[in-house]
Amino acid sequence: MAYLKLYRDKLKHNFEHLNKVFKEQNIEWGVVTKLFCGNEDYIREVINLGVREVHDSRVSNLKVVKNIDPDVQTVYIKPPPKKYIREIVTYADVSFNTELETIRLLSKEAEKQDRKHMIIIMIEMGDLREGVMRDELIDFYGEIFKLPNIEVIGLGTNLNCLHGVMPSSDKLIQLALYKQIIELKFNRTIRWVSGGTTVVLPLVLRGDLPESVNHFRIGEALYFGIDLFSNETIEGMEPSVLELYTQVIEIHEKPLVPSGELAANPQGETMEIDEDLYGKTAFRAILDIGYLDIQPDFLIPKSKDIEIVDASSDMLVVNVGENESDLKVGDIVSFQLKYVGALGLMNSNYIDKVIE
């Protein structure tokens, strides 16, 4: 059976690298664990690093965090659905918000539970996912400050999450200016300007971050060491905290071109024949994983001899040329992963999750 492995030493290395970067610039940060889909063993590994702030987009995952360590500050990182207001107040110390009606419900529930619920207001800065429109921001904050049991601890934004709008110093300066305007207008102190996620990290590393931006929530860089501007590994970080291991279940030398009348495959694609490949063969291996678990585009073969052909629901087909590695049935083939691929694997009940 295919399995996903988390390397404890690599996770620790990346955490310590990021922690050093943020400490040097007096930036607070929390770890995003939504990739782990509530897997208790993996989340425990994160908390054991000394993490005191965990971000997630599923309240059930935050419940796992609180069960492991009730003292870890939990942050719900999308606008709360009305259906889960009670659970969010119970298990999330902080939530991201964009709707006044939702915040009123959080206030009422926090009163019922006799607790303070903290919120970060997300501002629309161009990517057109979640966020309050900037020209409505002052009136929005004015209403929120009237609500009991709600503490506004920050404002933030998300970039590159939907339309691919990249962060810039200019956009983050604008974000920081909104903090100053709100503090002056309402005579309040706002603790955090939450500048974003892994995509903003290159600005931190280059020293292009406005000083007022003092909070981040990081997942992808921690697990993949990725610079999303260059799509290369950040210097000094590990790219493969998580790796996929699959097993060869068949290997034969086969033609490179199918024979027979062609129609659309189960993915709705019709193959285009490269006539230069007629009469040519290669060793073709089948691995025990498929679309049910991951999109092949999210796999990065660790061996240069492996070429991904495609997959069906439960099997991945790869070409291995002349099979110079002498792959046999039962051998293991490993892959590095892209973020969304790892997310699919974590969410698959058919993939074992192990720790080394």
TrEMBL record:
InterPro entries: Ala_racemase, Ala_racemase_N, PLP-binding_barrel. SUPFAM superfamilies: PLP-binding barrel. GO terms for cellular component: cytosol. Its cofactor is pyridoxal 5'-phosphate. It holds the Pfam family Ala_racemase_N. Keywords: Isomerase, Pyridoxal phosphate. It comes from the Bacteria. Residues 9-225 form the Alanine racemase N-terminal domain. GO terms for molecular function: alanine racemase activity; pyridoxal phosphate binding. PANTHER family: ALANINE RACEMASE, LYSINE RACEMASE. This is Alanine/ornithine racemase family PLP-dependent enzyme. It comes from Natronogracilivirga saccharolytica. The lineage of its organism: Bacteria, Pseudomonadati, Balneolota, Balneolia, Balneolales.
